[in-house]
Amino acid sequence: MDLSVVYMVFGILLASYAVIGNDSVQTLGTFIASNRSPWYYQWIWASSIFILAVGYGLYAYDWDMSHGRLDHIPAVQIQWYHLLGPLALVILTRFGFPVSTTFMVLSVFAVGFALEKMLVKSIMGYAVAAGAAYVMWWGLSKVLDEHDAVPAWQKPYWRAGQWCTTGFLYFMWLSHDMANFVIFAPRGKELTYPWILFICTTAIMLMGYMFWDKGGKIQEIVLEKSNTRYVRSATIIDMLYAFVLYFFKELNNIPMSTTWVFVGLLAGRELAIRHQHLPQHFHTVFPLIAKDFAKIMFGLAVSLGVVLGVHYFIIDK
Q1: Is the pTM of this model over 0.70?
Q2: For a disulfide at 211, which of 31, 39, 153, 264, Cβ 3.0-4.6 Å?
């Protein structure tokens, strides 16, 4: 067997594990924290969204599962050093770092113009999400106290809204981040049905483990924020996050870090809640935000270290 095929298989396995394990907190973290249905119901539901996203990509983007996110990154023959990014991501995931899978995985493939555009778009995503979340929760606090119990007659509607909103969010997230593991697969008409089946089976099995494990180590970044265990708060968070991702998806097809968007959204929301309801303890929010921001900066530094090491010591040697 050609070694490049072996590297492709291991790349898909490593990247799928890292992307789903690390990014589950973004799209499904608040859902897992607040939903009381059995984990296998959640797994079946998320798997159906995944299959829908795969099918839509193949149909609407000329047999492209990445939804056009790899248009600016040329196809290359996969080598062993392309596995360093997802391998580092797997290690960081086990320690609970909410690092950017986009930078960790795609940086080795995207250099120069594409890498610069990815970074700029991700910074924009953090700022837009933080600003939108601050404004939205500042306004909500005028009419809604998230500490108040949801009236009994409203609960079925919020539950239904949570399933629908998180489903839309998960589809939007997949349209961005599926590129992070299908980059190891063949492209265009070379993407055969066995490859598609392998990618889907791998991702669905890993999602099952993630739901069974209730989000894993990364889930802590959601649980330490205010009210994220409540269905109403979780639904509103997911709705805003989905629309921010939709905005950047329609803006252009440059890949971006959805992790940065999610961390920015939580930061803006936490600032608004503390400022409005706990002004005397407002200063306590900054260490929490700084800790999350430091983690994504650390992930960016590691990813840039990997890409520079690969290019200076391996490719250009």
Answers
A1: yes
A2: 39
